[in-house]
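Recall that a protein's primary structure is simply its ordered list of amino acids. Everything else, from secondary elements to tertiary packing, is in principle encoded there. The following example makes that idea concrete.
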Amino acid sequence: MSSPDKTIVSLRNVGKTFESGTVALDRFNLDVGSGEFVSLLGPSGCGKSSALRIVAGLSTASEGSVEGPGGAGAGHIGFVFQEPTLMPWADVAANVRLPLKLSDADEARSRAAVTQAIARVGLADFARAYPRELSGGMRMRTSIARALVTEPELLLMDEPFAALDEITRFKLNNDLLVLWQQLRRTVIFVTHSVFESVYLSQRIVVMTPRPGRVFAEIAIPAPYPRDERFRTSPEYAGFCRTVSEALSQAMAGGVP
């Protein structure tokens, strides 16, 4: 992948305090370039999802500035939640079509876009299947297709594979990287898995426990495409060790 040529998301000294008084983020800074794959890594409750929702415009920052698709700038966003959140009474095609329906998109173009999005995630033969008929991995693929159907500039993913078994998770990691390389979209991926973050990312942002701040940013310069050879390589193990050490220091309140 080429180096990003422009910044499409910029958070400066962002804080988030909930009405309960819980401080989720404090002086959080993040820049993401066009076409980058960046992971936010940290323990549960460290503010990763809060940061993602602020980027998406689903939540507002209590302080600081936000520039990008969900902030001051314009652009399209696709959001993939941890749970697929599919409509159980609707088939795969109807679930994927939902964002287009809500935006009153042209019917003919919608049909073409839905067909393409479903094919991209490998579900072309399941367009008329209902969520109850799908495996967990297939339901998540449907959710990803729904996020991609509007051709978003930025794809936000909030621990989308956390509930899946390891084999399915590995497969979806591989397929996600193929999609990312094909579509050249920007991805911000939230995870608490060191191994997943290293496998997927160009850059990993390690966060402190609540209130979430950036503890370290670690580049993963391994080339793409990545496959099982990378996953079992000494290079991968070395990156995982480096990231694990940074996460341990963040958890212990160390100095980056």
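The first strand starts at residue 7 and ends at 17. The chain has two domains: 1-9+24-75+153-256, 85-151.
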